[in-house]
Amino acid sequence: MIVLQRCIFMRIGQQFCSRNQETTKSLVSGFPTALLGGHRAAGLRSRSTLPNVRERTLIAVKPDGVQRRLVGQIIQRFEQRGFKLVGLKMLQVSEDLLSQHYCELRTKPFYPSLLLYMTSGPVVVMVWEGYNVVQTSRTMVGHTNPAEAQAGTVRGDFSFHVSRNVVHASDSLEGAQREIQLWFQGSELLNWDCCDQTSTCEL
Ligand code: IDP
Ligand code: MG
């Protein structure tokens, strides 16, 4: 039994070293809890909550933000927070793409004017990666209505009306995945290693 336990923990240790969290989780969940036993299991639980530094979200600078030359300042906020840019492009959005992006808002009275606004000029759309990036981005972007957005947020600093609120940020993990697939081809997203990775998060 002790030999079996040692084998199990050696395999798990190797998986942690290779930083393959998914494999490790399935490896751990595949064994009966009783086999993992006391203190060691407690240690494993804390290691298995390694931060998901691969979380991704979609951020877009809307046409008013591009016209007002705010693209650089908005990118800078995400860079200085420590997030990693993995996709970036400028495009004139089609109504078809927008209707999919804003499918939940089709019945809203402001929907026609939202389409006009979003197609009034180019947008700059990005994918940012990092720990808790979806929720943190929403905080950084601020309230949908800039009149209620806090100073220090993008909308709170650069806009004052809900019809011209400068920037889009995905509102959930599922929403982010859906929007990233809608706006980007897989080949347009880059996996690259940051030289400062260990300075932004304990991996
Ligand atoms: P969010 O952008 O903060 O996620 P949503 O409720 O998803 O907010 O709305 C999408 C976008 O629709 C907003 O960012 C804004 O551009 C626009 N919008 C929302 N509510 C109104 C409104 O009451 N009047 C005009 N435009 C609105
Ligand atoms: Mg939204």
Automatic annotation (TrEMBL):
Ranges for domain Nucleoside diphosphate kinase-like: 54-191
Top-level division of the source organism's lineage: Eukaryota
Keyword Magnesium found: yes
InterPro entries, per database record: NDK-like_dom, NDK-like_dom_sf, Nucleoside_diP_kinase, Nucleoside_diP_kinase_AS
Keywords: ATP-binding, Cell cycle, Cell projection, Cytoplasm, Kinase, Magnesium, Metal-binding, Nucleotide metabolism, Nucleotide-binding, Nucleus, Transferase
Active-site residues from the entry: H168
PROSITE patterns tied to this protein: NDPK, NDPK_LIKE
Cofactor(s) of this protein: Mg(2+)
Binding-site residues for ATP, renumbered to this chain: K62, F110, R138, T144, R155, N165
Gene Ontology biological process terms in this record: CTP biosynthetic process; GTP biosynthetic process; UTP biosynthetic process
Pfam families, alphabetized: NDK (PF00334)
Protein EC: 2.7.4.6
Membrane topology type: Peripheral membrane protein
SUPFAM superfamilies: Nucleoside diphosphate kinase, NDK
GO MF, one annotated term: nucleoside diphosphate kinase activity
Coiled coil: none
Function noted in UniProt: Major role in the synthesis of nucleoside triphosphates other than ATP.
Recorded family membership: Belongs to the NDK family.
Name of the protein in its database record: Nucleoside diphosphate kinase
Gene responsible for this protein: NME4
